[in-house]
Amino acid sequence: MERPPFKLCVVLPCYNEAGVITHTVHTLLGELDSMATAGLIATDSYLCCVDDGSRDTTWSEISELARAHGNVRGIKLSANFGHPNALIAGLFSNHREADILVTIDADLQDDVSVLTTMMQHHHEGKRVVYGVRLDRQVDVLPKRILAAMFYRIMRLMNDRTVRGHADFRSADSGVIADLERFGEANIYLRGLFPLIGYPSAEVHFVRKERHAGESKYPYRKLLSLAWQGITSFSTAPLKFVFYTGLVIFVLAILVGCWVLYAALSGDPIEGWASLSLLVIAFSALNMISLGVIGEYIGKIYKEVKHRPRYIIETTTTT
């Protein structure tokens, strides 16, 4: 049986996107019109722009767009809560009204033309559709290498990881309702959606250049995101610390036996430099191990405080 058109909500997290957001909204509105004409989505589908504490004129531009277009809405967060929290603010604020929710970055480096294919998959019964990047040639070589290493590590730790997928995806309102049940503060959306399950599909596209502005993910944030993903979905770093300690313990026994044998055979080992080097190396390893353990303790600390993940200051509908 053919499904009726879905009411679609496209969530756009925005942080200092002045000069970009107007072009993005107009581009997406054109895609909404095309899909509505094709009967894939309802005519009352809309965009929701989430201002994540921008310091420029992003919110004023969103407000102006909302006044000019009835199918554009805006949510302003009271501070910069981070990209993942801006995404869930948009998703949780709209999943009771929309049938399908799409998340896409405001820079439009993700190809909006595949939105039609996403909606077709939903009409076929898929509940989650992942946008997967086939080519990252627009990114510099070090960034591409780091991304490849990260996805390889994540696949080793969690075989549900979708390689090449970032935050361009669509999901039905029921999936978002299930996502809302995950109350964790250290949220990693790229891992949670595959964890939830349900029938899914992938659409592939080539990553584009930014229309304007600059990337909001420098290397420092990319490394932080990678570490967040690894520590939020796996205890492998803790196991690595344990097994490393076990190996060193065995090595220490072997070295001790060697030293004892040398002493008993009348050929004692001399040299305080080598001993000092070993002490320094093991001390550094201990500090690194404590740092890994401390990272997990810090996550527990954040979870038990139950602070809100975002605070909505105002919306364009108030």
Summarize the structure.
This protein is α/β, with parallel strands linked by helices and 318 residues long. It has ten helices and eight strands. The chain has two domains: 8-214 and 308-315, Alpha-Beta Complex (Spore Coat Polysaccharide Biosynthesis Protein SpsA, Chain A); 236-305.
Defining key terms:
single chain; 318 residues; alpha/beta; Spore Coat Polysaccharide Biosynthesis Protein SpsA, Chain A; 2 domains; 50% helix; elongated
Structural overview:
This protein is of the alpha/beta class. The chain folds into two domains: 8-214 and 308-315, Spore Coat Polysaccharide Biosynthesis Protein SpsA, Chain A; 236-305. It has helices spanning 21-37, 58-68, 83-94, 115-123, 141-157, 173-180, 189-196, 219-233, 236-264, 272-305, and strands at 8-14, 46-51, 72-77, 100-103, 128-135, 165-172, 200-206, 312-315. An eight-stranded mixed β-sheet has the order 7-5-6-4-1-2-3-8, with helices on both faces. Helix 5 (141-157) runs parallel beside helix 8 (219-233). The longest helix is centred in the last third of the chain and has 34 residues, at 272-305. The radius of gyration is 25 Å and the shape is elongated. The two termini are 39 Å apart. The model has no long low-confidence stretch (mean pLDDT 77).
String of helices and strands: EHEHEHEHEHEHHEHHHE
Uncertain runs are none
| Number of DSSP-assigned strands | 8
Q: Any idea of the CATH topology of the largest domain?
A: Spore Coat Polysaccharide Biosynthesis Protein SpsA, Chain A
Structural class: alpha/beta
Largest sheet: 8 strands, mixed
Name of the level-1 CATH class of the largest domain? Alpha Beta
End-to-end gap: 39 Å
